[in-house]
Amino acid sequence: MTQLLTLDNVSLSFDMGANSRYDALSGIRLQIAAGDRMGVLGANGSGKSTVSKTAVTRILKIFMMCAPAPSQELTLKKRPDQHL
Q: What is the number of domains present in the chain?
């Protein structure tokens, strides 16, 4: 099947001040192929929304012709008749 979305080794940290960082995501890998259905499950505070927002942000940056950050790789393929 055609891969539509791939997240490879995506990490996200937040600066908490006083030389402290919070690793919200670490080493996330995700592949979504044409026809796949998926859901994101997890406890409160486990990063479900952060993963979703990170994926959407990366998709928007690609469509705005911005390169992904070197530590993150995201690829998106769409059919000409699809709209995001």
A: 1
Which is it for strands 20-33 and 73-76: parallel, antiparallel or unpaired?
unpaired
Prediction pTM value: 0.54
Q: Which domain holds residue 72?
A: 3-76
pLDDT digits (tens, 9 = 90+) for 22-57: 888 888 888 888 888 888 888 898 888 888 888 777
Closest CA to 55 of 82, 14, 25: 25
Rounded to an integer, what distance in angstroms lies between the CA atom of residue 35 and that of residue 80?
16
Contact 78, 4 (CB under 8 A): yes
Residue 7, number of CB atoms within 10 A of its CB: 20
